[in-house]
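Possible regression after last week's pipeline update?

I re-ran a chain I had predicted before the update to compare outputs. Posting the input and the new output here so someone can diff against the archived version. Not blocking, just want to make sure nothing changed silently.
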Amino acid sequence: MRTTAIALLSACMLTGPFRLTSAASDEAGQLVPSIGHQDRAFAPVIPRPRIILTDIGEGTFEAAYAMAVQADEKIVAAGFSTPAVGPSSDFALVRYESTGRVDRSFGDNGRVLTDFSGTGSTDQALAVAVDLFGRIVVAGYSKSNVGVDFAVARYTADGTPDNTFNATGNVLTNFGADDRGTAVAIDWNDKIVVAGFSNAGGTTDFAVVRYNVDGTLDTTLNGTGRVLTDISVGSADFVAAAVIQADGKIVVGGWSDASGIPFDFSVVRYNPDGTLDLTFNTTGKVLTDFSGFGSYDTLQALAIQSDGKIVAAGRSNASGHSNFAVARYTATGVLDGTFNATGKVLTVFDAGSAMANAVVIQSDGKIVAVGLFDDGNPGGVDFALARYNTDGTSDSTFNSTGKVVTNIGGFDVGYGVAIQSDGKIVASGSSDVNGTSDFALLRYLP
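New output (post-update):
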């Protein structure tokens, strides 16, 4: 099942050290040496480890919120670009060769910008997936003077809008006044599932939409192609991730205050027809509090293991500071006691704060989480990675500690992660080391 879960940066800034600045070696978790800027590749040309920064255009803020690896190993990064003048932003895509060089056969010199309104709307892409035909599906939201809607665009393999999708290559879906798509997944029929949240029900609820291949709403989902789920009556519920199981069931994750303020990890599973799956924790829903006494826990990413277990990653301040938080659930929706004995694990990055924004499962079953680490100093926000063994313990073969922090030199945040066929770990995000925030791409040895 080809799925993508996106990572949302919480409104609360995080706060901690442990920076990787040495040259790369053959050890797992070390950066693969690269020439680092613009169109240059991951090739080991100089010994000092660097990254790839891509300036989309004249944007003052650009971030790669999600990424996917195509069947041909090319890397698609999706996010948004804000112009130097005006408050608007556009969907932004960049495609890279497997070596990290920008693929100039894609779009306009490797880059694609999409404005949904044509009149300066705020359009932000938060998720990306690639279908069986190599078409690229990007989801997020579009904010204009008439409201905020789910926004979905599909591109052909060369980066042009796919006009077989809603005739224009993109579609907006309105639930209510404020509707934001945050995650996308594609099933084996190439139907597109977009999840997010909406206030159409009066409070913020989980929202799921499914589209047919031609971009029309798939009415076999809940009779309308859309479904809203309130975790508890009147609760505030936010979605950050979605995956599709091999049996077609849809798993959506985020956070909710259904148990009272602050928030808990929240996971909902739907049957393919959009009804709640009552074989999942008997209600179709599950809440997870990491502290047991009301910590601030936000789920940012989901992944499905080959055995059907569900891995969720995000942040929790259960220990006082915000830390990487990872939970694993059985196929029936209960915490998996074979994972760190409790089904939950917190990872502390020294004397600071951290948050996982993305998660992926390696072919050997090890779990990789990517996000940020904040040491509390100006410019002290860095890419952060952690790798776990299948039992939830830290993988000491990964940078000897199971953790790595990479300081690019500015405000650096990891949002997406993918595994290449050779096992190398690619992380996407943003960095403002050059003065304005650019797409950032990093690759690590497995």
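Follow-up from reviewer: compared with the archived run. The chain has no helices and 29 strands. Marking as no regression found.
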